[in-house]
Amino acid sequence: MSNYSQKYDTAFWDTEISVKKNNAKLLPLLTGSKAPDITFKKDMGIWQKVSYRFNYTSATINSIMDNKPLVVSFLSGGWNNYGLKHLKLLNQAYSEIVALGGNLLVIVHASYPDVREMVQFFEIPFNVIADPNNEISEKFGLFSKDVPVWDKISGISEEVPIPATYVLNQYAQVIYHTIDEDFLHTFSATKVLGAVFAAVNRVPYTANYNYAA
Fold it and tell me: I need a labelling partner for 125 at 20 to 30 A (CA). Which of 15, 86, 115, 134 fits?
């Protein structure tokens, strides 16, 4: 008994064993924020509608905007059917965005060759940027390795950003955003077009500016 007592260490039971809890959460860019100042590499983008002043070697959000409202939307093939629906809505809304005086930039979680193939296959007419490592989506607060989407959403197995669409005014300020962290619904083209209309006319965006898509 005495030998057992000598081996028994009471301090063991007083030792605190830490249990790791993941309290991390995404902090996406919201309305009222300024879009991050990002310079895109030449081999990242497929530029199909840009100003004649556009610098292809060091493109930025401001140079893409060219003093016009810009819709920025994120897309990933890892979203499966949700991604296809999202892309279809973007294609449908694009002509209206341009007609109102805005432009569209879609940031795709994919390699440049895959993005190029996607553009050709779906006959995409708007500007597209490849973001294979989620660097851009991370700057928008839509991706973090500490908050994996696959840990929350069934059917997703890749490191993907959450769906989000923004409308930036001529000063690169977010005047409208829609984020679907739970993958329940895609963006509303009516609201996005309403925000573009408001930005073009330099008036605050409200629900009154919903535009019939």
Answer: 134
Put simply, whether the predicted model's pTM sits higher than 0.90 gets the answer: no
Q: How far is CA 46 from CA 59, 95, 178, in A?
A: 11, 18, 24
Backbone phi, then psi, for 9, in 5-degree steps? -110, 110
The distance of Cα 101 from the centroid of its chain, to the nearest Å, equals: 22
> At how many degrees (to 10) do helices 189-200 and 81-100 cross?
30
d(CA 48, CA 66): 14
CA distance 178 to 185: 10
Domains and CATH numbers, the chain: 61-209 (3.40.30.10)
Averages of pLDDT over each 10 residues, the chain, 213 residues: 50 42 75 92 90 88 93 94 95 97 97 96 97 95 84 78 96 96 91 96 78 50
Tokens of 131: 């973001």
pLDDT at 151: 73
| CA pair distance 79, 109, nearest whole angstrom | 10
Query: Containing H/E element for 74?
Result: strand 70-76
